[in-house]
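Reviewer 2 asked us to include a model.

Predict the structure of this chain.
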Amino acid sequence: MSVRRAAWALAGAWALASGCASDPTQGYAFDKPFDGQRRTIAVDLFENTTFYHGMEVHLTDAVVKEIQRSTPWTVVNGPGAETTLSGAITDVTLRKLATAPVSGLSQQVAVAVTIDFDWRDNRTGQALVQRRGQRAADAFVPAQGVGERIELSERAAVEEAARTIVGALRSKW
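Predicted model (C-alpha coordinates):
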Protein backbone atom coordinates (compact mmCIF):
# COMPACT_ATOMS: atom_id res chain seq x y z
CA MET A 1 0.00 0.00 0.00
CA SER A 2 2.80 2.47 0.83
CA VAL A 3 4.64 1.63 -2.42
CA ARG A 4 1.52 2.56 -4.39
CA ARG A 5 1.25 5.88 -2.53
CA ALA A 6 4.91 6.62 -3.13
CA ALA A 7 4.48 5.90 -6.86
CA TRP A 8 1.46 8.22 -7.05
CA ALA A 9 3.32 10.94 -5.14
CA LEU A 10 6.32 10.63 -7.48
CA ALA A 11 4.07 10.77 -10.56
CA GLY A 12 2.27 13.81 -9.18
CA ALA A 13 5.53 15.62 -8.41
CA TRP A 14 6.82 14.89 -11.90
CA ALA A 15 3.60 16.18 -13.48
CA LEU A 16 3.71 19.38 -11.43
CA ALA A 17 7.38 20.02 -12.21
CA SER A 18 7.03 19.65 -15.97
CA GLY A 19 5.30 22.08 -18.28
CA CYS A 20 5.36 23.55 -21.74
CA ALA A 21 8.69 25.04 -22.73
CA SER A 22 8.95 28.68 -23.80
CA ASP A 23 10.32 27.47 -27.14
CA PRO A 24 7.56 25.51 -28.92
CA THR A 25 10.08 23.26 -30.67
CA GLN A 26 11.11 21.82 -27.30
CA GLY A 27 7.70 20.47 -26.26
CA TYR A 28 7.55 19.72 -22.54
CA ALA A 29 10.41 20.85 -20.33
CA PHE A 30 11.32 21.24 -16.69
CA ASP A 31 12.18 24.86 -17.36
CA LYS A 32 10.04 27.90 -16.57
CA PRO A 33 7.66 28.97 -19.38
CA PHE A 34 8.81 32.59 -19.03
CA ASP A 35 11.54 34.64 -20.60
CA GLY A 36 14.13 34.94 -17.83
CA GLN A 37 15.97 37.85 -19.48
CA ARG A 38 13.22 40.35 -18.75
CA ARG A 39 11.84 41.19 -15.32
CA THR A 40 9.84 44.41 -15.68
CA ILE A 41 7.03 45.42 -18.00
CA ALA A 42 5.15 48.67 -18.51
CA VAL A 43 1.56 48.35 -19.72
CA ASP A 44 0.32 51.35 -21.71
CA LEU A 45 -3.38 52.19 -21.67
CA PHE A 46 -4.91 50.33 -24.59
CA GLU A 47 -6.42 52.47 -27.32
CA ASN A 48 -10.05 52.00 -28.25
CA THR A 49 -11.21 52.73 -31.80
CA THR A 50 -14.74 51.43 -31.18
CA PHE A 51 -17.94 52.95 -29.85
CA TYR A 52 -17.74 50.78 -26.71
CA HIS A 53 -16.22 53.35 -24.38
CA GLY A 54 -14.44 52.28 -21.23
CA MET A 55 -13.42 48.83 -22.46
CA GLU A 56 -9.82 50.02 -22.89
CA VAL A 57 -9.58 50.80 -19.17
CA HIS A 58 -11.03 47.42 -18.24
CA LEU A 59 -8.67 45.63 -20.66
CA THR A 60 -5.58 47.44 -19.37
CA ASP A 61 -6.56 46.67 -15.78
CA ALA A 62 -7.26 43.01 -16.61
CA VAL A 63 -3.89 42.63 -18.39
CA VAL A 64 -1.99 44.16 -15.44
CA LYS A 65 -3.79 41.85 -12.99
CA GLU A 66 -3.16 38.80 -15.18
CA ILE A 67 0.56 39.62 -15.45
CA GLN A 68 0.76 40.02 -11.67
CA ARG A 69 -1.22 36.83 -11.08
CA SER A 70 0.40 34.44 -13.52
CA THR A 71 3.93 35.66 -14.30
CA PRO A 72 7.07 36.52 -12.33
CA TRP A 73 7.31 39.92 -14.04
CA THR A 74 6.85 43.20 -12.21
CA VAL A 75 4.55 45.82 -13.71
CA VAL A 76 6.14 49.28 -13.48
CA ASN A 77 5.26 52.73 -14.75
CA GLY A 78 7.47 54.98 -16.78
CA PRO A 79 10.70 54.62 -18.69
CA GLY A 80 12.36 52.31 -16.14
CA ALA A 81 10.70 49.19 -17.55
CA GLU A 82 12.70 46.75 -19.64
CA THR A 83 9.69 46.08 -21.89
CA THR A 84 6.46 47.81 -22.87
CA LEU A 85 3.12 46.32 -23.86
CA SER A 86 0.82 48.51 -25.94
CA GLY A 87 -2.22 47.81 -28.04
CA ALA A 88 -5.65 48.75 -29.28
CA ILE A 89 -9.16 47.40 -29.23
CA THR A 90 -9.98 47.50 -32.93
CA ASP A 91 -13.45 45.97 -33.02
CA VAL A 92 -16.29 44.91 -30.76
CA THR A 93 -19.12 42.98 -32.37
CA LEU A 94 -22.36 41.46 -31.17
CA ARG A 95 -23.31 38.19 -32.80
CA LYS A 96 -26.69 36.56 -32.39
CA LEU A 97 -26.27 32.94 -31.34
CA ALA A 98 -29.89 31.90 -30.74
CA THR A 99 -33.31 33.37 -31.42
CA ALA A 100 -36.74 32.65 -30.02
CA PRO A 101 -38.71 30.57 -32.52
CA VAL A 102 -41.95 32.52 -32.17
CA SER A 103 -40.85 36.13 -31.66
CA GLY A 104 -37.48 36.08 -33.44
CA LEU A 105 -35.90 37.99 -30.53
CA SER A 106 -32.32 37.21 -29.51
CA GLN A 107 -32.05 34.60 -26.79
CA GLN A 108 -28.26 34.38 -26.68
CA VAL A 109 -25.73 36.90 -27.98
CA ALA A 110 -21.91 36.80 -28.11
CA VAL A 111 -19.68 39.82 -27.53
CA ALA A 112 -16.46 39.46 -29.54
CA VAL A 113 -13.49 41.76 -28.92
CA THR A 114 -10.67 42.11 -31.46
CA ILE A 115 -7.30 43.40 -30.27
CA ASP A 116 -3.94 44.32 -31.79
CA PHE A 117 -0.94 44.46 -29.45
CA ASP A 118 2.84 44.79 -29.44
CA TRP A 119 5.34 43.85 -26.75
CA ARG A 120 8.68 45.61 -27.24
CA ASP A 121 12.08 45.47 -25.58
CA ASN A 122 12.82 49.06 -24.51
CA ARG A 123 16.59 48.53 -24.61
CA THR A 124 16.81 47.33 -28.21
CA GLY A 125 13.49 48.47 -29.68
CA GLN A 126 12.95 44.91 -30.91
CA ALA A 127 9.39 43.58 -31.13
CA LEU A 128 9.15 40.54 -28.87
CA VAL A 129 5.54 39.65 -29.69
CA GLN A 130 3.14 41.22 -32.19
CA ARG A 131 -0.41 40.09 -32.75
CA ARG A 132 -3.05 41.51 -35.07
CA GLY A 133 -6.69 40.51 -34.93
CA GLN A 134 -6.49 38.59 -31.64
CA ARG A 135 -10.08 37.75 -30.67
CA ALA A 136 -11.85 36.87 -27.45
CA ALA A 137 -15.56 36.38 -26.87
CA ASP A 138 -18.20 35.64 -24.27
CA ALA A 139 -21.94 35.08 -24.50
CA PHE A 140 -24.88 36.44 -22.55
CA VAL A 141 -28.61 35.79 -22.43
CA PRO A 142 -30.67 38.97 -22.83
CA ALA A 143 -33.96 37.06 -23.06
CA GLN A 144 -36.83 37.99 -20.81
CA GLY A 145 -36.78 36.02 -17.60
CA VAL A 146 -32.99 35.79 -17.53
CA GLY A 147 -32.13 39.31 -18.61
CA GLU A 148 -28.33 39.22 -18.30
CA ARG A 149 -26.69 42.57 -18.90
CA ILE A 150 -24.31 43.07 -21.80
CA GLU A 151 -21.71 44.57 -19.43
CA LEU A 152 -21.17 41.15 -17.83
CA SER A 153 -20.32 39.64 -21.18
CA GLU A 154 -18.12 42.59 -22.17
CA ARG A 155 -16.15 42.20 -18.93
CA ALA A 156 -15.79 38.44 -19.42
CA ALA A 157 -14.61 38.90 -23.03
CA VAL A 158 -12.04 41.48 -21.88
CA GLU A 159 -10.77 39.14 -19.16
CA GLU A 160 -10.47 36.33 -21.71
CA ALA A 161 -8.55 38.71 -23.99
CA ALA A 162 -6.20 39.56 -21.10
CA ARG A 163 -5.48 35.85 -20.49
CA THR A 164 -4.82 35.40 -24.21
CA ILE A 165 -2.47 38.40 -24.35
CA VAL A 166 -0.45 37.32 -21.33
CA GLY A 167 -0.34 33.77 -22.68
CA ALA A 168 1.18 35.14 -25.89
CA LEU A 169 3.77 37.06 -23.87
CA ARG A 170 4.85 33.90 -22.05
CA SER A 171 5.76 32.07 -25.22
CA LYS A 172 7.86 32.93 -28.26
CA TRP A 173 5.41 31.49 -30.80
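The mean pLDDT is 82. DSSP finds three helices and eight strands in the chain. We have added this to the supplementary material.
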